[in-house]
Amino acid sequence: MRGHAGDWLRHYKDMPPAEQERELQNDPAFRNLPPQRQQQLRERLQHFSSLPPQQQLRMLNRMETWEHLTPDQKQQARQIFGQMRQLPPERKRMVSTAVRDLASMPPDQREKVINSDRFKGMFSDQERDMMREAARLPLAPDGGENGPQE
């Protein structure tokens, strides 16, 4: 359970759930956790195991990227994505897609797109500010091989 974020999951992700549970129970770090935390980790493992392989990889990559963010970047990410979670579902999807697209652009091009008449017509000033801040963070591309989540 120690090491880089996601190492345990990467190592055991292809095992059947019963074997994953057994490995988890045998992990000394896991056994030293309070029962409530153990239950939370079991539930997260069950959820992770139920995901398609591509989503599992995306989650592992995000965990790895998250681990390398500075405390300030983590705080900024929590703040931005907290604001995004408050958007209505359709708006959240549109902003998330735009952030993914913007993150792959060089900063000068990204700024031009965010300030374009097209984006001003599609997104509020608040949404464009969220995009600007989120695209500046060194987060993993959604489908990439290198990638955050806590």
Summarize the structure.
71% of the residues lie in helices and 0% in strands. The chain has ten helices and no strands.
Q: Kindly, what is the distance between the CA atoms of the first and last residues, rounded to a whole number of angstroms?
A: 14 Å
**Major sheet characteristics:** none
Choose one word for the global shape. Answer: elongated
**What is the beta-strand fraction?**
under 5%
The total count of helices amounts to 10
User: What integer is the average pLDDT?
Assistant: 84
Strand pairing plus helix content: what structural class?
A: mainly alpha
Q: Which radius of gyration do the C-alpha atoms yield?
A: 18 Å
- The low-pLDDT segments are 140-150
What's the assembly state of these chains? single chain
Beta-strand segment tally: 0
Order of helices and strands: HHHHHHHHHH
Give the helix level as a range of percent.
over 70%
